Amino acid sequence: MSEPNPRLDLAKAIAVEAGRHTLRYFQQENFVVERKSDDSPVTVADREAEQILRDRISANFPEDAILGEEFGAVDGKSGFRWILDPIDGTKSFISGVPLYGTLIGVESEKGCQIGVIYIPGLDECVYAEKGRGAWYVKDNEKPVRAKVSSRERLSDSVFVTSQVDSFQQRGAGEVYRQLEDAAYVTRTWGDCYGYLLCATGRIDVMVDPIMNVWDAAALLPIMEEAGGTFTDWQGQPTIHSGEGIATNGRTLDEVLAITRRFPKTA
């Protein structure tokens, strides 16, 4: 049996702690929704949840670097960097919809090694460490292997995205139209919940045209360890391209045949 990884253990624990903290505000009226410079929403729940994550990481791994959506970057000396999104899907959160989550990725010189997605409103979690599999937990039950679907063709698949108009913002509205036409079912069960669905075999393809690194960091190890893929629109397995595709692996070539015609421009 392989030795426990204390960073993975901490990542799982604090994702649940911070995620459950957001439930104090979820479907309540006791918080203010602000708009950041990019017009995206932010609340006290985002900030408090990220502060919990930062405090726990600093207490346990004081030499690790941290990058978070709300409070920026802290340098480290250990060669490890934690990448945090306290509420991925704030638009769902402020709308009282439980399809939002807490994301934690841990990156080293070998790339992103650890990923955790926790959905507090549904008490679902999927986590992974490179080389040690992906695991799914619901309602404190025993973890089970997270596995992608076995559907072979896009015409039999469920395609999901976070927000349809983001394709147009990217100048790639045709990508959405072609994916919708090619897929059997199209839905917007988006943000990190869509990636959890893909990693657990309930959907087959998730495509986002615009992503930040804190949106993507947890996803690559989870998707790969679940037997699928996480790439950019050109097929490169990276969290740093500002875009993302998650698939069950079998449908990737069909998706790339569409997305590769629309490379990201500066």
Helical region count?
Answer: 9
Question: How much beta, percentage-wise?
Answer: 15-25%
The amount of helix comes to 25-40%
Give the helices and strands as they follow along the chain: HEEHEEEHEEEEEEHHEHEHHEEH
Order of the strands making up the biggest sheet: 4-3-5-6-7-8-9-10
How does the major sheet shape up?
8 strands, mixed
Instruction: Give the radius of gyration.
Output: 17 Å
The residue-averaged pLDDT reads 96
The 3D shape can be described as globular
CATH superfamily assignment of the largest domain? Fructose-1,6-Bisphosphatase, subunit A, domain 1
Query: What's the structural domain tally?
Result: 2
Provide an overview of this structure:
The chain is α+β, with helices and mostly antiparallel strands. It is 31% helix and 25% strand. The chain is built from nine helices and 15 strands. The strands form three sheets. Strands 4-3-5-6-7-8-9-10 form an eight-stranded mixed β-sheet, with helices on both faces. The chain has a five-stranded mixed β-sheet with strand order 12-11-13-15-14. Strands 1-2 form a two-stranded antiparallel ribbon. Helix 1 (6-22) runs antiparallel to helix 2. It is globular and about 50 Å long.
